[in-house]
């Protein structure tokens, strides 16, 4: 069978391209087309390509051409998405920022604040909370999450990392580890109930977040992109309990530190997660006819 590949870029000199395949639209997959394009132009590896029909609807790489509505002799469109970077690498870079930035501000206080002081118990606890949280996220990225997307455009790494490097990195570390919260200052005085109560609730939130990540992992057999309806701890109340528990963890840190910088990060992060949760919740209902109707998106019984 034959297929013509046209470029979405009118200035392209490489396209249109005519490809010949052994097989029929029922046996040739969209992925085979992507591989054939890569063979002609090695710089366009499959993750860098977006293949669409003439109505600009994306073609699912796992489907055959017939399933994607493409007949013998048809024309499809190609778009170059630009250089790509793996999702796992992006996550590792994102969380690596705060893991580097927090120790710098914590241990080099003299350089940043031009003052010598002892960290208060509140500062020590917040420091270990932040380090443990981001280390947990790195380990989950490596050993728990099973991502469905291979890659994203390389330049997104700067946009995505900005949130973590600036807001939960420099912003949080600078303002929480400063001399204004040092040992002996009234602003850092915390009762034992306040201090240890915060650690207990925060630990519960982090472990709950981990439990939901493990539930999501177990829904997807290794090496597949399968999606299913999650059930169990947290999921019986909301579609995205992982975001809910994440927000609780950071809210505890806000009340413990009383720093506006922690609130700033938490409000932006929660707002972003809520927008994603609403979208995921809608998609679940659309994708699964038997999706439980009583669930909310992110906040139990509320929204
Ligand atoms: N503080 C912050 O600013 C902030 C913001 C966002 C996230 N986070 C943290 O990062 C964590 C991960 O975030 P995320 O947005 O990647 O979470 P997510 O979309 O819920 O995905 C978590 C993992 O589960 C997979 N997954 C999701 N739903 C699935 C389903 N129905 N069936 C099978 N697999 C499914 C995802 O695969 P896919 O590749 O298919 O999506 C991904 O590998 C959050 O839970 C939170 O702890 C923090």
Q: Uncertain regions: pLDDT < 50 for 5+ in a row?
A: none
In percent terms, what proportion of residues is strand? 5-15%
The SS-based structural class is: alpha+beta
Reading side by side through the largest sheet, how are the strands ordered? 2-1-4-3
Q: Give the ligands present.
A: NADP nicotinamide-adenine-dinucleotide phosphate
Radius of gyration: 24 Å
Mean pLDDT: 96
The percent of residues in helical segments reads: 40-55%
Major β-sheet annotation: 4 strands, mixed
Shape: elongated
Q: Give the H and E element order.
A: EEHEEEHHHEHHHH
Question: How many strands?
Answer: 6
Report the span from N to C terminus. Answer: 51 Å
**How many helical stretches?**
8
When the domains are counted, the total is 2
What attributes characterize this protein structure?
6 strands, 2 domains, binds NADP nicotinamide-adenine-dinucleotide phosphate, Ubiquitin-like (UB roll), two-stranded antiparallel sheet, alpha+beta, single chain, 303 residues, 8 helices
Structure summary:
This protein is α+β, with helices and mostly antiparallel strands and 303 residues long. It has eight helices and six strands. It has two domains: 81 residues, Phosphatidylinositol 3-kinase Catalytic Subunit, Chain A, domain 1 (Ubiquitin-like (UB roll), Roll); 203 residues, no CATH class.
């Amino acid at each position: 069978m034959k297929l013509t590949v046209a470029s979405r870029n009118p200035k392209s000199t490489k396209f249109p391209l005519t490809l010949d395949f052994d097989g029929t639209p029922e046996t040739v997959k969209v992925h085979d087309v992507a591989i054939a394009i890569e063979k002609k132009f090695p710089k366009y590896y499959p993750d860098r390509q977006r293949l669409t029909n003439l109505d600009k609807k994306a073609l699912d790489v796992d489907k055959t051409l017939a399933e994607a509505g493409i007949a013998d002799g048809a024309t499809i469109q190609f778009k170059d998405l630009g250089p790509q970077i793996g999702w796992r690498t992006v996550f590792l870079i994102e969380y690596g920022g705060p893991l580097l930035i927090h120790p710098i501000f914590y241990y080099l206080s003299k350089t940043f604040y031009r003052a010598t002081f002892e960290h208060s118990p509140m500062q020590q606890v917040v420091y270990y909370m932040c380090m443990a949280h981001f280390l947990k996220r790195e380990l989950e990225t490596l050993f728990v999450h099973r991502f469905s997307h291979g890659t994203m455009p390389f330049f997104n790494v700067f946009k995505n990392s900005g949130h973590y490097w600036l807001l939960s990195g420099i912003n949080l570390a600078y303002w929480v580890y400063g001399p204004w919260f040092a040992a002996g200052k009234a602003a850092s005085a915390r009762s034992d109930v306040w201090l240890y109560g915060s650690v207990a609730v925060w630990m519960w939130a982090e472990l709950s977040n981990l439990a939901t990540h493990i539930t999501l992992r177990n829904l997807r057999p290794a090496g597949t992109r399968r999606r299913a309806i999650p059930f169990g701890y947290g999921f019986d109340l909301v579609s995205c309990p992982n975001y809910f528990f994440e927000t609780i963890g950071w809210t505890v840190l806000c009340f413990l530190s009383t720093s506006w910088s922690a609130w700033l990060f938490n409000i932006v992060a929660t707002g972003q997660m809520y927008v994603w949760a609403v979208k995921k919740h809608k998609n679940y209902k659309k994708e699964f006819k038997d999706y439980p109707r009583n669930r909310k998106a992110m906040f139990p019984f509320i929204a």
